[in-house]
Amino acid sequence: MKIDVTSEKIKEVLTRGVEKIYPDFKMLEKRMISGEKMRLYCGYDPSAPTLHLGHLITLKKLAQFQELGHEVIMLIGDFTGMIGDPTERLTVRRKLTRREVISNSKSYKKLASKILKFTGKNPARILYNSQWLDNLIFLKLIDLASNFTVQQIVVRDMFQKRIKKKRPIYLHEFLYPLAQAYDGLAMDVDLEIGGKDQTFNMLCGRDLMKALRKKEKFVLATKLLVDPTGKKMGKTEGKMISLDENPIEIYGKIMSWPDSLILPGLELLTNLPLKKVKEISKKIRGRKLNPADAKAQLAREIVVICHNKRAVQVAEREFNRVFKKKKLPSKILEIKLKEKKLNILGLLTKTKLARSRSAAKRLILQKGVKIDNAVEKDWRKVIKVKKGMIVQVGKRKFVRLI
Question: Which domains does the chain show, CATH number per domain?
Answer without folding.
Answer: 7-222 (3.40.50.620), 247-324 (1.10.240.10), 333-401 (3.10.290.10)
